[in-house]
Specification:
The complex is a heterotrimer of chains A (about 425), B (about 160) and C (about 300). Chain A is about 80% helix and about 0% strand. With about 425 residues, chain A is mainly α. Chain A folds into two domains: about 70 residues; about 325 residues, no CATH class. Chain B has one domain. By secondary structure, chain B is an all-alpha fold. Chain B contains six helices and no strands. Chain C has about 300 residues and is of the alpha/beta class. Helices cover about 45% and strands about 20% of the residues of chain C. Chain C contains 14 helices and eleven strands. Classes of the chains: A mainly alpha (about 425), B mainly alpha (about 160), C alpha/beta (about 300). The interface between A and B is large, with 58 and 54 residues. Bound molecules: sodium ion (2 copies). The site of one sodium ion has 8 residues of chain A, from α6.
Chain lengths: ~425, ~160, ~300
């Protein structure tokens, strides 16, 4: 049953995808078709419908429409330009400075919001158009944005590690957060190295050095916008509101700046801004909703059990098993959403790994690193699709510029996998 | 047809813009009520989750109407303009089938079994939450028909 | 002598080890008692979805057996709401006595029959108490104004309000960071929240007020029961009962370990508290219960077997 189900799922999906059917429909139809192997039609349709709704029934996802909305307001209200000008003061002389700004922005923003999608829409939504204006290739800018967006799922705080801690039977969350921070920063640095090399070869314009007076002007103009970062990050760090609530506060503050302080947006423009938020939310959520039906179809066919049999059957050397688990998780990550994947595969894979002497903290970091990569790879990658629609470029056109980034990220993954000291160093130092 | 599209667009815009506004307000209220009023709002969390479901699914229907859902266009790019228009009509029919089967039939089934299930906090039937599916299903059916009609008209124009 | 084999699909969400072990034992016993005629196929760890989804899947027959929290059951059948009432049980003994009494529980288990599933048995899910970050709760006054995470249920919210706390509704996954950052002063749960969910890393005071004992409920679909012969059905019910006996013991052992670990490894302090003022504070909830005859009747039955 596992084989028939997997083949049905993959083939149906691939054919529909090739026929240019919208990706969300491809996923939903392939999942329903797979379920039809195992149950009557009305039940399969019910389950697909149920999964679509219940996958959206997650409070954390509220950050998506809210951060998109604040991003839209920032773009329209000139806040984004001011922030970017400010960032260029520091990175202006480095080749690809705008791309580095985007990557660091994703790391910081992803860290506080915990959502790769929120990061890539709000930071990328600002940076990608801006980069094109300054002569960067749009697809390259979009690729860098997509590649660095998942770092926020590793840099704390992140719910992914909290879920992992719970299902792994009580791995230290503090230790996971520290290990994740190291892995996430390495991922971001990897992307910056790629961006540096590409930008240097493409001769992407460096910012003209500004006079002291001009620099002062930029700082002064950026000050109210910079306050946004202090309010959002400070509010979270000092426990005024949660990261998700912060997204609503960001909407309030950006609206206040644009409507009242800068007067760069008129009230009458708001409906259009909100509607483009709704449109982006509809695109993203439809993909997420459809993907959850796919998780069900795979689990119902008995795939998780089969995977553990295969891994145990192949080898019992730690290096080999970790490699196989990496490959498996990369594949799983391409089809499954990160939340369900953690819930389903931690209980299966962790015992195999610990038996071979792998530390549960280290394993958690490796696992979430893997699954995060899956969100930005074809065929099913919400991060990839979202990044493409934010940048308004076609998914296919992104594959080539993404390749060097994939390479760098996989290299970092191998380093993180085979040098456990990197992840375990900080937790051991702090004794957690 | 044009009138119907405008009507549907306006209806969804009105609904989604109001809902998004209310959602932002409620989320801010959730923060404020914890500090300013000393008695945190306990209804807002569930309301926001349910509102997110509705706005996402209505948003997805709106995007379907504008044919803006993400897809890989390699295959249609190989076709002539007329071929693309023809294939566009096929895709609209796939949307229609999806809406009728998954959203209307599957979603309708979900509504029917959950009308007696009461949400823990707001105490409303869960069927009301699931009904986002059949409602968006009907909207997508209408949009698919309008889009097909429009594609066909363009196709006829290019015939001459 | 050809006989058709039946496979029952058992799905559950993420769970503690005692529950997982008990469910595994249940399947083994079913198979033994039916000479392999009935087998149980497992979908553990939220593979098929969360508990609310699993109940709906049981309703439609995609899943045959599932295990969910009694608190969630209130959404499907109001009578289960009684189990979420604070200070309902005097102690663990009283709780066991009620849950093991078919005269009380059969009616509850059958109350979802019109939805296509019934209760099969119950599992111990322990007691829930308050735990806090910086200040221990030693009296009712200490709780006043404290921001405490509350489960998504009207009963739980009401209880919190009557006790004078400020109930904050949020998902379980956000509790850890919210306590850490000070958005919450504390939360309430059983001892596994300290160890397995690691909240002991951020909250060091656990006050044993044992406000609720909400059982887990194992559900079976009507369509699954209809597939079984009389003797097979008998075997399924027996296996369920025996798995409950096992789970009670396993739970007790595991929870004692969790307490020990909280003390020794995390330095959590446990406090006993005089609950009389707490009970008094929530009395209006019991007064309100009288308005609902079905719930009040169950409540009276539960109280009638109490020792004092
Ligand atoms: Na994060
Ligand atoms: Na992927």
């Amino acid at each position: 049953m596992v084989l028939e189900a997997s083949l049905t799922l993959i083939l149906t999906f691939a054919v529909l995808l090739f026929l240019s059917i919208p990706i969300g429909i491809c996923i939903a139809v392939a999942s329903t078709a797979t379920m039809l192997l195992m149950m009557p039609m009305d039940r399969a349709l019910f389950i697909t419908a149920q999964k679509m709704v219940s996958s959206l029934d997650t409070f954390a996802l509220l950050a998506v429409p809210f951060f998109i909305l604040s991003g839209e307001i920032m773009n329209n209200g000139g806040i984004a330009t001011r922030l970017v000008n400010f960032a260029k003061l520091f990175s202006g002389k480095i080749p690809g400075s705008l791309t580095h700004t985007n990557i660091v922005g994703n790391m910081m923003f992803g860290a506080v919001s915990g959502s790769a999608i929120a990061a890539s829409t709000s930071i990328g939504g600002v940076m990608v158009p801006m980069s094109e204006k300054e002569g960067y290739q749009r697809t390259f800018a979009a690729a860098a944005n997509i590649a660095s967006a998942p770092t926020g799922m590793l840099i704390p705080p992140t719910t992914a590690f909290i879920i992992y801690a719970l299902v792994s039977g009580g791995t230290s969350i503090a230790a996971l957060f520290m290990g994740g921070a190291v892995a996430g920063i390495l991922w971001g640095l990897g992307c910056m190295v790629v961006a540096y090399i590409v930008a240097k070869r493409q001769n992407y314009a460096m910012a003209q050095p500004l006079s002291r007076q001009q620099a002062w002007q930029v700082c002064r103009e950026a000050l109210p916008s910079l306050l946004l970062i202090f309010i959002v990050v400070g509010g979270i760090v000092f426990g005024v509101f949660t990261a998700i609530e912060a997204s609503a506060v960001a909407v309030l503050y950006t609206a206040f700046l644009s409507l009242v302080v800068y007067r760069s947006i008129r009230l009458i423009q708001l409906p259009a801004i909100m509607m483009s938020t709704v449109r982006m939310t509809g695109i993203i959520m439809f993909l997420l909703a459809a993907s959850s039906a796919m998780s069900f179809a795979m689990a119902f066919s008995g795939l998780p059990g089969a995977i553990s049999d295969i891994i145990l059957g192949i080898s019992d050397s730690q290096i080999m098993v970790l490699l196989i688990i990496n490959i498996f998780l990369l594949i799983i990550g391409t089809f499954m959403d990160i939340g369900p994947a953690i819930l389903i595969f931690t209980p299966i894979l962790l015992p195999i790994a610990t038996q071979l002497g792998v530390d549960p903290v280290h394993f958690g970091v490796v696992m979430i690193f893997n699954l995060s990569i899956g969100t930005i790879t074809p065929p099913v990658g919400s991060g990839l699709f979202v990044g493409a629609s934010v940048a308004q470029v076609r998914v296919e056109s992104l594959i080539r510029p993404l390749l060097p980034f994939y390479l760098a990220i996989i290299l970092v993954l191998l380093v993180v996998t085979y040098f456990p000291r990197l992840t375990l160093f900080l937790p051991q130092l702090f004794g957690v | 047809m044009h009138g119907l599209r405008t009507f549907l667009d306006r209806l969804i815009q009105l609904f989604c813009i109001s809902l998004l506004g209310v959602m932002v307000a409620v989320a801010l209220w959730q923060v404020a009520s914890r500090y300013v009023f000393g008695s945190p709002s306990t209804l807002s969390e569930e309301f926001l989750r349910f509102a997110l479901i509705w706005i996402s699914i209505m948003g997805a229907a709106y995007v379907a109407g504008q044919s803006q859902h993400v897809s890989m266009s390699l295959f249609v790019d190989l076709m002539s303009l007329r071929g693309q228009l023809k294939w566009g009509m096929v895709i609209q029919m796939v949307f229609l089938l999806f809406a009728v089967s998954v959203l209307i039939m599957g979603g309708g089934h979900a509504v029917s079994i959950s009308m007696t299930q009461i949400s823990p906090v707001l105490q409303i039937p869960m069927g009301l939450i699931y009904s986002a599916l059949p409602v968006s299903g009907v909207i997508i059916v209408l949009y698919s028909l309008i889009n097909t009609f429009d594609l066909y008209r363009t196709y006829r124009v290019h015939e001459e | 002598n050809v006989s058709a084999q039946t496979t029952l699909r058992l799905a559950y969400a993420s769970n503690s080890q005692p529950v997982k072990d008990a469910l595994a034992l249940f399947g083994k016993l079913v198979e033994e008692k039916t000479d392999g005629e009935v087998k149980v196929m497992y979908f553990p760890d939220s593979q098929l979805g969360g508990e609310r989804e699993l109940i709906e899947l049981t309703q439609t027959g995609a899943v045959d057996i599932t295990k969910v929290s009694g608190g969630l059951m209130e959404s499907f059948s109001p009578v289960y709401g009684v189990f979420s009432m604070p200070y309902l049980f005097d102690n663990e003994q009283h709780f066991y006595q009620v849950m093991d009494d078919p005269k009380i529980m059969d009616g509850v288990y059958q109350s979802t029959k019109h939805l296509g599933f019934v209760g099969l048995t119950w599992y111990d899910s322990g007691q829930r108490s308050f735990y806090t970050k910086s200040k221990p709760i030693k009296t009712l006054d200490d709780l006043k104004g404290m921001k405490i995470r509350v489960m998504q249920s009207q009963t739980a919210i009401k209880m919190m309000e009557l006790l004078g706390a400020a109930p904050v509704a949020m998902g379980q996954a956000e509790v850890y960071t919210s306590i850490q950052q000070g958005i919450l002063d504390g939360a309430e749960n059983n001892e596994f929240a300290l160890t397995v969910a690691r909240h002991a890393e951020v909250a060091k005071h656990y006050t044993m007020d044992t406000h609720t004992r909400i059982p887990d409920i194992v559900l079976i679909s009507d369509s699954a029961l209809a597939q079984l012969s009389d003797s097979e059905r008998q075997a399924v019910f027996e296996a369920a009962r025996e798995s409950t006996e096992f789970e009670k013991q396993a739970w007790k052992t595991a929870i004692e370990q969790a307490q020990q670990e909280s003390r020794d490894k995390f330095g959590v302090a446990f406090y006993d508290v005089d609950i009389a003022p707490f009970q008094q504070a929530v009395q209006p909830m019991y007064d309100e219960l009288k308005a609902n005859p079905a719930l009040y009747d169950l409540y009276q039955q539960i109280r009638s077997v109490a020792q004092n």
